[in-house]
Design goal:
Helix content is 34%, strand content 22%. The chain is an alpha+beta fold. It has a domain of 150 residues: Thiolase/Chalcone synthase (Peroxisomal Thiolase, Chain A, domain 1), CATH 3.40.47. A hairpin with a 3-residue loop joins strand 12 and strand 13. Helix 5 crosses helix 6 and helix 9 runs parallel beside helix 10. 45% of the residues are buried.
Length: 371
């Protein structure tokens, strides 16, 4: 098999940022308003009194300090508490396509390829813009790429699963170069009125060029891929086209993203650490052979715990496992490749590991080597 490389990457993120202080002020103002309006029901025990958030709570729970978002003003407005967007419509380009193209052009430039070099576009995301037509095909059309394109969803593992598919397509011979795009416009799906969720997500997009025999200065050879899924309801979203026809009633709040954070932490961390250790053993590698761990940016505590379990010590240089979550928040499936894009200063021959984990549960781990 010819060598297959991650030949280049590019990222996009919106200019608007929200600090923890700003999001706490907004949330706590909403809490005051809610508790005041529902004072009698709270006193009668019909509904629970809402509790304040705090910057200390957010940073301890997640490690997040700021997040980039598509619409700061409306997210912080306690009468709105969500970004303002418009419907998907044939008269205009999808927001996923818009940001995907911006990241794609950076990745193409980073890899030294043009549209004529690309044989396929794979778009992976946690939050689909629409059912059809495929946003990947829309991007393919806008960039003037021949070949094929499709969308896929695997929760917060969508980016690495999509890269895996790109490698598989190249290995099979149906493509030589694949553009992988992962737009994560998550903030429209966040319930900013929930204390344990309101601070988590930011918006962003990453694009990756996966190519055969591309040994540019920015390329990393793919050494190994490993995937696993295990069913769990601990991270879930019930929003779909079925909502319109459902005979039982659920509010928007019930249909949006929710998670059992404690269970996710307790179950996913040991699962992922064991998975990575098994992969390293299968490839005759030791943990200290890995110079960077580019992990899914779900939670700083999760990243640090997983790495500590893999290397057998909780005392390690923070540069070993970069944490762009501090600045960008949780970027859903794009997080691991954001970490890769921003912190891939390896020397030739050094190895790193890209790993995502998310709803499902789903895990994908890719070992790469700097060319």
């Amino acid at each position: 098999m010819k060598d297959i490389h991650i030949a280049g990457t590019g990222i996009w993120y919106p200019e608007d940022t929200i600090s923890n202080e700003e999001i706490v002020l907004s949330f706590n103002s909403y809490v005051d308003n809610f508790n005041d309006l529902n004072k009698d029901k709270i006193e009668d025990g019909k509904i629970q009194k809402l509790e304040y958030s705090s910057t200390e709570f957010i940073e301890k729970a997640s490690g997040i300090k700021t997040r980039h978002v598509i619409d700061k003003k409306n997210i912080l407005d306690i009468n709105k508490m969500m970004p303002s967007v418009v419907h998907e419509d044939e008269s205009k380009m999808s927001i996923h396509a818009e940001v995907g193209i911006k990241a794609a052009k950076k990745a193409m430039n980073n890899a030294g390829v043009t549209s004529s070099d690309i044989d396929a576009v794979i778009l992976g995301t946690s939050h689909a813009a629409r059912n059809y037509p495929s946003v990947a095909i829309e991007i393919q059309n806008e960039l003037g790429i021949d070949g094929y394109a499709y969308d896929m969803l695997v929760g917060c593992s969508s980016t690495t699963f999509a890269i895996n598919n790109a490698v598989s397509d190249i290995t099979s011979g149906i493509a030589n170069t694949v553009l992988v795009i992962n737009p994560e416009i998550s903030t429209p799906f966040v319930n900013y009125a929930k204390r344990d969720i309101h601070f988590i997500f930011g918006d962003g997009c990453v694009a990756t060029i996966v190519s055969k025999n591309n040994t540019s200065n920015n390329s990393f050879k793919v050494i190994d891929r490993k995937l696993i899924t295990k069913f769990s309801n601990n991270i879930r979203s019930d929003w779909s086209y079925l909502a319109r026809a459902a005979s039982d009633e659920k509010s928007y709040e019930d249909l949006l993203f929710y998670q059992n954070g404690n269970s996710v932490f307790k179950e996913v961390c040991p699962m992922v650490a064991k998975f990575i250790n098994n992969q390293l053993e299968e490839n005759n590698l030791k943990s200290d052979d890995i110079k960077k761990f580019w992990l899914h940016q779900a939670n700083a505590r999760m990243v640090n715990l997983i790495v500590s379990k893999v290397i057998g010590s909780d005392n390690f240089d923070t540069s070993l496992a970069p944490l762009p979550i501090e600045k960008f928040g949780n970027l859903a499936s794009a997080g691991s490749m954001f970490a890769f894009n921003l912190h891939n200063d390896l020397k030739s021959g050094e190895k790193g590991l890209i790993c995502s984990f998310g709803a499902g549960y789903s895990v994908c781990s890719i070992i790469v080597e700097k060319t």
